[in-house]
Each structure stands twice: as structure tokens, then as C-alpha cells.
Amino acid sequence: MRTQVGIIGGGPSGLLLSQLLHRRGIETVVLEKHSREYVLERIRAGVLEHSFAELMREAQVGERMDREGQIHDGFYIAHGGIKKRVDLRALTGGKTVIVYGQTELTRDLYEARDQAGGILIHNAADVKPHDLASPHPYLTYRLGEETVRIDCDYIVGCDGFHGVSRQSIPKEKVRTFERVYPFGWLGVLTRTEPVSPELIYARHERGFALCSLRSPTLSRYYIQVPLSDSVDNWPDEQFFDELRRRLPAGVSEAMITGPSIEKSIAPLRSFVIEPMRFGKLFLAGDAGHILPPTGARGLNTAASDIHYLYHALVDHYSQRDDRGLESYSQRALARVWKGQRFSWWMTNLLHRFPDSSPFDERIQETELAYLFSSEKALALLAENYVGLPL
Ligand code: APR
Ligand code: PHB
After folding, report:
1. Cα separation, 321 vs 301, whole angstroms
2. Is 69 helix (H, G, I), strand (E, B) or coil?
3. How far is CA 157 from CA 5, 9, 72, 258, in A?
4. What is the pTM of this model?
5. Got the DSSP string for 14-36?
6. Helix (H, G, I), strand (E, B) or coil at 204
């Protein structure tokens, strides 16, 4: 079997790249180790920056996003029993974000690939990239007893943090940068009316909390918990009691609770690998970097990788111009680190660190007081939240 671009991983990064390249007549094969149902069951974030939404429209997969997604002009930060609004539209000259679940977005991409007759191979076991430093790389995977080989011009690793792509790069060829935070997010999804039409990020002495949503009838709530904690320690009632304690009175009183339909703990980590390329292999999305969810950057940074790689591959195939491919890693990493900085800053601003000193806490309080006393500081926050220029 032969294709132009072999893509490992059928998550949002792999599917979006496959759809964009298809629209420019470039062939791809996507190898996904799990079933489609498994991929679509995962509950992930859902705040899209405007350039991501633009990319979805360019891929002709934006119709349902624009119909069902919610445009958010702002969000709130709550601390000290009050909540203050960050007016994204006013602070950025009109830019906003779209709240649309990653699960729905991935579902739309699958449908678009099906309609286009895209080659998506699920349950592909033992996917391996080979000869990455040679002019003729190839992929192998196992389907049942049969081992299949796919010859490619290029291989793109969109297989997430635990994928095979990054592992296949010789250690001496890369550097990794990591910060593991001493806490996680316990997230709950409920079929209830969201407590607020806009997101509320809360800093509280008992720890961080976030009120988010998926639709007018689907709420997503998070509380900061120790990394060692377990979902079993958090029956729904206890979760909502703790969430309410961390929110301003007006918000907690308005909270409509209900049985959780999903509940999980996600660790918080900052991770980057440099470079995001080895020979004919390019890394994109979570395969190359993990951002703590506090800045709503994970999915958006994956999309910016895809933006750069898509244009670089189009330039290669349409004009034999490889400057985009040559500069892909450097350009993608420049935006990855800006997203890392912002997510790290939001995480430090809003979470309670177990080893924080009274001095650290004063600095956090002062950072928030400064933020809401300075239009310039708020504009800086807003500019990063809506998405920095590509
Ligand atoms: N072979 C084939 N597929 C694999 C392999 C492998 N060895 N390892 C992992 N995969 C698949 C996973 O099953 C998953 O479907 O690769 C896909 C990677 O998808 P994601 O983890 O969603 O990563 P990405 O597409 O880059 O999306 C990044 O996802 O986790 C969120 O916050 C993150 O929002 C960001 C987005
Ligand atoms: C979510 O809705 O899951 C969500 C929103 C914003 C974040 C993180 C997660 O920063």
C-alpha cells in the first residue's frame, strides 16, 4: 500500500490534517489503534480559538460548530467571594471564542472523512514508523494476524502523549521540557442547566474550580484535587458540596446539580519536545506537547501545529517548496511555548500549591488585584485566551 502522508492517530489533530490535505488533493491514510466508538467516548475540553474555527471552516467541517457552538464574548474569574468578568470582545477589538465540545468536533471530522471516502483504519495494532531518516519511510501495523506495510512520503505523529511516534525518535536527537503540577482536575459532566452562561475560573483557599459547559443542558465542572486522589472518594453530592464552597455565594446558590454522566481525574502537566520533527516524521498535537487545561490551550495548540504542517505540505506538493517543512518545528514550537507560558501562568494564578508559603499566596492575590485594576493586564490575558496570531 502507498500513500503520500501517513498519519498515526485518529484524534482531532490527525483527522483535521487528513481532511485539510484531502481538500487540496493530497492523499492520506490514518491509523488509529482504538475503535471509533472508543475515540468518541473520551470527554475532553471544548473552547476553540477563532483561528481554529477558521481552520475547521476551511476544512469544510464548520457547519455544525457554527450552528450548535456557542460564541462566548467573555468569561469570569472568581476570588475572594466575588467574580469579575474578562470582556474578551472589548479587550481584543472584537475577538471571541467558541464553546463546542472536542467530542462533537471529532465526530464532525469523522463524518467529513467518511463522506470524502477517507482511509481511516481503526483498531490498528502495533503501529510502527520505519526508516524515518531515509527518503522512503514506511509504516507497518497489524490487523488481526496480518501485518500491513504502507509506504509514505511523510509520516505525521498525531498519536497523543502516549503514542508511538515520539518514542520512535532517537533520544539523543531531541530535548524534552516538563513540569508536573502537584494536583489534578476532577471533572464531572451532568445533564443540567449550566450555572453560568459564561465560564467561571475560581481561585479559592480550598483549591481551584471551573464552571464550564457543553450546551444549555450539559454542564462541565472541575475542582482541583491532590494527584493521589481517586474518583471513588467523590460521590456526586460531595463533589457539588466542595464545588459550591469554592464559588461566590451568588453562584453556588444558583447551582443546579444532577447525577454525573462522566467523572474522571486528569493530571496537570506541561510538556514540550524539541524539535517536533525527525527526518520524515513530524509531530503534531499532544504527541509533541501537553499543556495544563487552565488556559484552554491544548486543542488550540494542536490546531496551530496542523495549520503550519498543512500549509507546509501543500507548498511541498503543489510547488515543491520545502521551506514550510524545514521551518515547521521552529514555527510550531514558537506558538507552543507561548501557549505553555500562558497556561503555566493561569495555573500558577488560580491553583493552590501544597507547598505555597504565605508570601506566595500574597503574590497570587496581588496578581489578581493587579489584573482587575489594569486594563492593559486584562487585555494581555484576553489576547492570549482568544488565541495569539498564527
Ligand atoms: N497507534 C495508533 N494510534 C494511536 C497510538 C498508536 N500507537 N497511540 C495513540 N493513538 C491514538 C489515540 O488512540 C488517540 O485517538 O492517537 C490519538 C491521539 O489523539 P489525542 O490524544 O486526542 O491527541 P490530538 O489529536 O493531538 O488532540 C489533542 O486532545 O487531549 C486533548 O488536550 C488535548 O485537546 C488536545 C487534543
Ligand atoms: C472544558 O469545558 O472542559 C474546559 C474549558 C476551559 C478550560 C478547560 C476545560 O480552560
Report:
1. 25
2. coil
3. 11, 7, 32, 39
4. 0.96
5. HHHHHHHHHHTT--EEEE-SS-H
6. coil
Single-letter residue type at 373:
S
User: What angle (nearest 5°) sits at the alpha carbon of residue 309, between those of residues 305 and 314?
Assistant: 150
What is the reported pLDDT for 34?
97
Residue 45: pLDDT band by 50, 70, 90 thresholds? confident
For ligand 2, the distance from its centroid to the CA atom of residue 212, given in whole angstroms, is: 6
Give the number of the ligand closest to the Cα of residue 350.
2
Q: Whose CA is nearest to atom 3 of ligand 2?
A: 45
Per-residue confidence (pLDDT) for residue 144, from 0 to 100: 87
Residues 6+ apart with CB under 8 A from 223: 185, 186, 207, 208, 209, 210, 239, 242, 243, 246
115-150 pLDDT, tens digit per residue, is: 999 999 999 999 999 999 999 999 999 998 999 999
Tens digit of each residue's pLDDT (9 = 90 or more) over 72-82: 999 999 999 99
* Vertex 388 angle, CA 367 and 50, to 5°: 115
**Nearest protein CA to atom 19 of ligand 1, as residue:** 11
Ligand 1 centre distance from Cα of residue 268 (Å): 17
Strand order in the sheet with 74-79: 82-87, 74-79, 200-202, 209-215, 218-225, 175-190, 260-274, 289-290
The answer to whether 28 and 5 have CB atoms below 8 angstroms apart is yes
Q: Mean pLDDT, to the nearest integer, of 357-377?
A: 96
Specify the residue for cell string 482568544. 386
Site to probe by mutation for ligand 1, drawn from 7, 159, 212, 336 as the one with most ligand atoms within 8 Å of Cβ, is: 159
For residue 293 and ligand 2, the question of a CB distance below 6 A is answered with yes
CB 194 within 8 A of CB 289: no
pLDDT score at 375: 95
- Whether ligand 2 lies within 6 angstroms of the CB of 294 is answered as yes
Determine the average pLDDT of the residues in 148-175: 98
pLDDT higher than threshold 80 for residue 43 = no
